[in-house]
Amino acid sequence: MKKYTSLLMLAAIMMGILAACAPKTVTVTVEVPVERTIEVPVERTVEVPVEQTVEVPVESKTLVFSSRLFSPPREQEFFINEVIKPFEEEHGVTVNFQILDDDTLLERAKIQQETGHVTTDIICAHNGKMPDWIDAGYVEDLSSYVNSWSDRHFSPAFQADTNRGDKQYFLPVGADVYLLLANNKALPYLPEGVDLDHITWEQYAQWAVNIAEGEGEGKVCITGIPMKSWIYMFGGSALSYGAGFPDANSSEAMQAWKIWETIGKANGFVPTVLNIDSCVDPMMREEAWLTVFHNARAGQVYASNETQFTLAPAPSGPAGIGSIAGVSGYAIMKGAPNHDLAVQFLEYLTRPDIQVKISKGTGGFIPPVQEALDYLGNEPIDEVISKAILVLDNGVVSGVPAYKYQDWGAVKQCFDDVFEDTILPGKDVTQDRLDQAQQCVDDLLK
Q1: 400 membership: H or E segment, kind and range
Q2: What is the pLDDT of residues 104-133, one digit of tens each?
Q3: Could you give the C-alpha distances from 28 to 16, 33, 34, in angstroms and in order?
Q4: Do 289 and 189 form a contact (C-beta atoms < 8 A)?
Q5: Of the residues 75, 184, 348, 436, which has the fewest C-beta atoms closer than 10 A?
């Protein structure tokens, strides 16, 4: 029994020793690593993704704007830097500004509409093409937006082109008429007693003859390269005598042809006339001294040195001051991918102050927003705009009915041919020759 009791005591002592030693082997290994492996990754996975979703911007919108207006490089540069860029910066968008001619604009729209893949948001077309756009259904009715803009009213002079019934499809911009521009070197040859602000076509022709006789060569500029502006230069003079446009052979048109015949017989045109596609450079080089041409181009020359040139309204005839009056217009393509942004851009472009900014920066176009005239000042370019408005408001003006013809360029050629084969060589203008020209025009009707 004693032996059994001793064994039990020995066992109890051994268990006590083991129990006393056991805690020292287990406690140290578990706590610190667990706390560190949980805290660091959790903090990082929460912070980084949240910050990225806030900072990465929504994809920037690109507004596609295709225009036939502002094609000269100088005008493009101004329009992009001074008009488009402020809008881009304010709205955080990009405006893809493209220059295309009227026919290409319409052909591209046709493809986009027929395929249902519309990529163009805004177009700017000439008033001679506006009926084609409206008839085809390629542009949206903008009446609701226009009616909500109480701070601007568009000139009624162009409503026949921009509107259809009570709906407005185009917002007019960059209107133009024709003005007389003379180098001051031509002033000594001005017929006695002539008031330049009221000069007649007969006086203009005599002035051209006087210059040619005094200088030994002609100084009158017209665009002699085919299919440019001669049809408009002649058309303005024809309207002054009561002709229509394009009218080549009426008795009224004959009177206008006789004015140009007088100049041609005196060798009054600049010798290089058949190589001229714009009178801007010949006038600035002083190769030409006298012209009646597009007011924005006249403005470009005049504003370059107003002390060197004299500006006046176009000459008048028995019916008044005749001029072809053109205008371009903004429209939103049907199905435009950025419709709401396009509306915002057009609201911006047609603000009265922006209209004047565009007009003054691109040579002197007429701003067709009536309130814009309040922003005109006393600079030379303001004078250009004011004289152009005078012609538009008081003259006998006609638009360009290009939509009635199969090929407007070919119509221009009918008039170019009369200039080249009859006027420039100094021949008599005959009724037979004009009847041929009119037949040429009529054959091109749709």
Answers
A1: none
A2: 999 999 999 999 999 999 999 999 999 999
A3: 22, 11, 12
A4: no
A5: 184
